[in-house]
Amino acid sequence: MGVLDYSFYEADPIELAPLLLNKLIVRGERVGRIVEVEAYRGEEDPASHAFRGMTTRNAVMFGPPGRLYVYFTYGMHWCSNVVCGQDGLARAVLLRAVEPLEGIAQMESARISKGGVVRNLRELARGPARLCQAYSIDGDDNGADIVSGDRGIVITDDGVPPPKKPGVSGRVGIKDAADYPWRFFVSGNTYVSSTPANVPRSA
Predict the structure, then answer these.
(1) In whole angstroms, what is the distance from residue 2 CA to residue 22 CA?
(2) Is 177 contained in some domain?
(3) Residue 61 forms part of a structural domain
(4) What is the reported pLDDT for 202?
(5) For the chain, how many structural domains are there in total?
(6) What are phi and psi of 119, to 5 degrees?
(7) Is residue 203 part of a domain?
(8) Is 19 within the bounds of a domain?
């Protein structure tokens, strides 16, 4: 199981997003396979937090790549994004859903401790807010280095390739540029989110 290096994250988010599918997010004993992501392109993207430039909130999006951009939305949810592209440009890929593989009890406990309701395994980390709860990702992880694992979070490759033909759609849970076909997912995977109306606004 190899941790992805910095060079992997230097790609444009539209190229990187489908390549992240089937990679693993690891935090301690918690391991899940990425099955759904969305790309965001800064000043070129009306839906991006960085569309109007750098702020204190979105500064991590501007690089360097290989970090997490974590933000709070709706006054109740954390969402996490992989920063990518060239240093100085605001590029990121929102982590939308994972298929839990290991450390499931720890994920459940983390969800419940944050007030989450765990009805079944399928719902455990399905959607960006649940994913963050399951991995205990919050504002303290904003800027986390996911290559060195300085805050215990890394993304690894266990040899399972990304799908040859990933599912592609418009992005969900946003108003601006929702029709951009920048949402990528593992087709047929039951852990992919399917309730757009309840999904927090993306990065």
Answers:
(1) 13
(2) yes
(3) yes
(4) 41
(5) 1
(6) -85, -35
(7) no
(8) yes
Share of the chain above pLDDT 90, in %: 70
Q: What values do phi and psi take at 197, rounded to 5?
A: -65, -20
The domain that holds 180 is classified in CATH as 3.10.300.10
pLDDT band at 172 (very low <50, low <70, confident <90, very high): confident
Residues 136 and 90: their CA atoms lie apart, in Å, by 25
**Which long-range contacts does 161-169 make (Cβ < 8 Å, 24+ apart)?**
161/22, 162/18, 162/19, 162/20, 162/21, 162/22, 162/23, 163/18, 163/21, 163/22, 163/187, 166/18, 166/21, 167/192
One-letter amino acid at 30 equals R
Question: Which pairs count as long-range contacts for 24-27, CB under 8 Å and 24+ apart, including other chains?
Answer: 24/101, 24/155, 24/156, 24/157, 24/158, 25/95, 25/98, 25/135, 25/153, 25/154, 25/155, 26/1, 26/153, 26/154, 26/155, 26/156, 27/135, 27/136, 27/137, 27/152, 27/153, 27/154
Residue 78 pLDDT grade (very low, low, confident, very high; cuts 50, 70, 90): very high
pLDDT at residue number 120 = 92
SS3 (DSSP) at 13: helix
Q: Which structural domain range is residue 164 located in?
A: 2-198
What is the structure's pLDDT at 152?
A: 98
Q: Which two three-digit tokens encode residue 91? A: 């590029």
